[in-house]
Each structure stands twice: as C-alpha cells, then as structure tokens.
Amino acid sequence: MGFPSSPAMSRALDLARVAAAMGEVPVGAVVTDPSGQVVAEAHNRTRADRDPTAHAELLAIRRATAALGTERLAGLTLWVTLEPCAMCAGAIALARLSRLVYAAPDPKAGAVVNGPRLFGLATCHHRPEVVEGLGAAEASQILKDFFARLRRGDGR
Amino acid sequence: MGFPSSPAMSRALDLARVAAAMGEVPVGAVVTDPSGQVVAEAHNRTRADRDPTAHAELLAIRRATAALGTERLAGLTLWVTLEPCAMCAGAIALARLSRLVYAAPDPKAGAVVNGPRLFGLATCHHRPEVVEGLGAAEASQILKDFFARLRRGDGR
Predict the structure, then answer these.
(1) Sheet architecture: strand order including A28-32
(2) B70, A50: Cβ pair inside 8 Å?
(3) I need a surface site. Which of B10, B24, B152, B155 has the fewest CB within 10 A?
C-alpha cells in the first residue's frame, strides 16, 4: 500500500489477534515515544473487564500516562488497528497525543474521518497529526474473520 | 428554574465542590438505578490521577459497571454537573445508559448540544434521553468560582 513496514503497527495487529482469541472485538493499540520505543500497549477488553470504556486506545492512553507519570502525552504517537470512536478520539485529544496512526477506517462508529470528524471541530482543543491506512488490509481481515466466526456461532 | 429538587444532582454538585477543593476542575457525576438508588459516583480526578481520561462521568460509568458486574447500564441514569465532552458522551452511548441529566451546558467542549451533538449522529448507536438544566445555576457558579480563584493564583 506504499507504506513502510512498522514494528509498532505490527505489534498493534498482534494485539488485535490476541483480543480475537479472547472473544473480544479485535482492536489493538500501542503508544510510542519520539524515539519509537513502546511506552504502553493494550487490546480491547470490554468483555473481559465488563467495562464499556475498555477500548484498546483508552487503555493504552491510561497505561502510557501511568507509565510516564504525566497527564499529557505530547510528542507521543498512538498506533491503533481501527479508526477511533468518539470516546477514544476525545481521549486522544485530551491526552494531547501528537500523532495518531490508524489502520482501517470505521464507517460505522469512527469519529476521525467518519461521524463527527472530531478533530476538526471548534470544541476539540487539540488536533493530532493523523495517518490512515498503515496495515489496513490486515486489520480489516482480522475484524472480518472475527465477525464471520461470531456469526457462525463458534466465537467464544 | 422550574425543576424539582433532586438528591442525585445535589450529590453531584457536592462532588464538584470536593473536586474544586482538591484543585480539580469541579465536575461531579452520579449514576442511579431505576429506583433512584446511587450505584456509583465520582468527581474529576485528572490531576490527582495524572490521567486525562479521569473525568467524573467516565469514572462514574466504570465504577457503576464494576459495582453491577455488567458491561451495560440499561435502565440507569447518569447525573452530571456539566455537559459531557466527546469522550464522555461516547462512553455514555457505549454504556447504553438510559438517561443523561446534566446541569450546565459547555459551549467550549460539550458534545451533546454543542460541538458534534454526538447522540444525533448515525455513528452513535445509542441515544439516551437527555435532560439539561437541572442545577445549572449552581454548577456554573462552582465552575466560575474555581476559575476565578485559579486566575487570582490562589488555586492549588
């Protein structure tokens, strides 16, 4: 797709696969510092944690701020396998993340290029640099396989 | 203002005052079950927790799901002293809360009647009943006092 390979997105895709194996909607997220080091990572855990806010992005942000002991993640990049929803896009802005790299767009619930297009609104006070498409084919296939398995009834 | 008094909103306002005393932006939230019993409550803790996602609403939702052992809060009401931001409005929809009662509107960062007006979008898959204005004067005064004190430099 013209994108260079990326260890951070590869890791996010692996985390999505781990989520799928647990019966969670397969989305993975990684936060890296300016040198490319992984600061935090997470996958969806809404079912395991019985927590509707336990999306990969929100957990990765909370883990990154805990790891760094800071409320703001300026200079850092969030890599995620699916376009963030409104909750997660809002959290990305609140955390002041410098960059968002996501794989597949989410026409159903996305809030970056779909739905509210949150970062373009006057009520959004921080706009990260956004890169879409890195790893998109792979991320979409993981989601497709997961939901096909669910429909067949052999999901967990 | 024509609203009946409400123990839940009174409690949310008290929680906002507790937040202010801690140097946190004064917003309080309470979740009640259909009988009016308080299931969970929280105030802003972004500074104390060094967590940009630690808004009153998000914490109250997480505490309510933990208290009830369920991922969804159907039938429950969230009472909050300020119009929720995009992150929190998104979380309210994901949690399937039946009702949102908030005090003051937030033209700067609100996402219910301001900004994205999130619950009206096709990418939002649950629309709670929304009541605005209960306790608004008191909630606004608490916020105004807090920011005036901050500007004077005697905030903590």
Answers:
(1) A38-43, A28-32, A77-82, A99-104, A129-132
(2) yes
(3) B152
